[in-house]
Amino acid sequence: MTKHIFSTILLAGAALVGLNSCSDFLEEQVPQGTLTDEQVKDPAYIDNMVTSAYAIFTTAEDINSSFSLWNFDVRSDDAYKGGSNTSDGDVFHQLEVEQGIDTRAWNINGIWERFYNAISRVNAAIVSVEKCDDSYTQKQARLGELRFLRAYAHFQLKRLFKQIPFVTRTDYTYEEYGKISNTEFTNDEGWAKIAEDLEFAYNALPATQADKGRPTKAACAAFLAKVYLYKAYRQDTELSNKVTSINEADLQKVLDYTEPSIYAGYSLEKDIHNNFRPEEQYENGPESLWAIQYSRNDGSTYGNLNWSYGLIVPNISEVTDGGCDFYKPSQNLVNAYRTDGNGLPLLNDFNKKDLDYKADNTDPRLYLTVGVTGLPYMFNEKFIMDRSASWSRSGGLYGYNVTLKQNVDPELIGSYLIHGSYWASSMNRIVFRYADVILMRAEAYAQQGKTAEAIKEVNKIRERAAASTQSIANYPNKYGVKFYCKPYTGSYSKDEAMKIVKMERRLEFAMESERFFDLVRWGDAEPVLNNYFASEKEKCTIYNEASFTADKNEYLPIPFEQMSAANGNYKQNSNKW
């Protein structure tokens, strides 16, 4: 079952149901049918219930509601929405420009329902596992896995909506379900609830797992570090999203859970691009702590393919016809990869002019993240990018850059790139990779004023970046590209170190749907995005009316459908909606 822990299994009581204010969850929690107690306690039944819980993390997402949240990262300065025009996926255009967002929008309610469907499936499996006695030798490990999955769904919901109901009990009565509130916990207490599930999981999970899709102790440590890093930036003032303090105890937890000894057997890939290749020999590599597992050739028509990136593929004539060309890297992001005479990022002035790769020094990660006009698409010289409709369905409205991390070489059509109703691939999606552990550790050090330690961690990432040229080794000679990426060597203040860490996170995780959430976590979203909108208007006219409103646009509104079904128990997360 190595890659197939995420494959679909249909079970009584584990069907996908709509979830309005969590009210339908009980139907999954207590499976209905004719199963006897002996059957329910049978290890084979229990294992199927657990597999069903994993499966929903692929089956419940779709092109408009990817659990990677790429659809919602269009709010950041990394990416344009893309597509043919502003009406193509108009609800995401509204998020991109932070104008006209409607609490009744289908995409906002859709992602809410899908994650709560996932939580309900997980809790149904928890009920089954808990019925088993200790003769089921995997009981504690399976409970750890399930609570890890539940934490993941709550974590994504909390990053999106801030104030959410936590469904962490499996013994609610119908009456209690009608009283669940999204304000039972403060913001800080909400992060603590997620950490509570993960602390249990950390103690229950083994160091290694035979099935690659199952989380390990190290994966859980990385997740805990991430939760405590979010928790450290306190945003507990009612109806405000301002960061009022940074908690020292939470920062120490980040350091505890990024301690290198926890990660024996894990390391950075020699080349960052290896994390984004579909071939089996590259998947579940040394940097992949936990990944959503997709597969091909597993007996079904399409296999367990990733359809959630189906809108991202470009529309290359007679090659990837039907590609929708969404999620396009911004010019601002491209400019951020320029380096100075010391091989370091231009922290303050990177966006004063647009990057010219034949004239400017650049970080190699640019060409592994962004398909740039004049260079090969997916490193294949048969597909040189130009300023044509193949590389911009919008005729240049969203520029001609194309994201590379989610895409697959068209040469692999029929094997790793499959056409159905949309394009899909079997490439795993890494949720937690070791590079994040390093940069979270760097951030905690920087916030503590331990700047030398922080820069040492950052340099591990920069040294790997400089060596990431296996797919682009001929770019300097053939295309005139100038790679120049060096480690930091100076002494830095706390503010300088934090600026360095923030830039390094952007460069390393660009187009991985982390940027917007980082900006909100730091309290930087309003100034950074309004500066971005002002500078982008000439390059991308969709931003003419764009404006970010503090204490509102950091989080999505609680969907109207959920507010209506909540019997007055939900509170909107801003008085500005």
Fold and architecture overview:
The protein is mainly α and 577 residues long. It contains 19 helices and 14 strands. It has helices spanning 25-29, 37-40, 43-59, 90-97, 106-131, 139-161, 174-177, 187-204, 217-232, 248-257, 331-336, 365-369, 434-447, 451-466, 475-479, 494-509, 515-522, 525-536, 560-565; strands at 79-82, 233-234, 245-246, 288-292, 326-329, 338-339, 361-362, 370-371, 376-377, 380-384, 402-403, 417-419, 423-425, 429-433. The protein has a two-stranded antiparallel ribbon. Strands 2-3 form a two-stranded antiparallel sheet. A two-stranded antiparallel ribbon has the order 4-14. Helix 6 runs antiparallel to helix 8 and helix 14 runs parallel beside helix 16. The longest helix has 26 residues, at 106-131. The protein is globular, with a radius of gyration of 23 Å.
Tertiary shape: globular
In angstroms, what is the radius of gyration?
A: 23 Å
Helix content: 25-40%
Beta-strand share of residues: 5-15%
Task: For this entry, give a set of tags.
19 helices, 577 residues, single chain, mainly alpha, 7% strand
Give a quick summary of the entry.
It is built from 19 helices and 14 strands. It is mostly helical and 577 residues long.
Strand and helix map with partners:
Elements: H1 25-29, H2 37-40, H3 43-59, E1 79-82, H4 90-97, H5 106-131, H6 139-161, H7 174-177, H8 187-204, H9 217-232, E2 233-234, E3 245-246, H10 248-257, E4 288-292, E5 326-329, H11 331-336, E6 338-339, E7 361-362, H12 365-369, E8 370-371, E9 376-377, E10 380-384, E11 402-403, E12 417-419, E13 423-425, E14 429-433, H13 434-447, H14 451-466, H15 475-479, H16 494-509, H17 515-522, H18 525-536, H19 560-565
Antiparallel strand pairs: 1-5, 2-3, 4-14, 6-7, 8-11, 9-10, 12-13
Helix pairs in contact: 3-5, 5-6, 6-8, 8-9, 9-10, 9-13, 10-13, 13-14, 13-16, 14-16
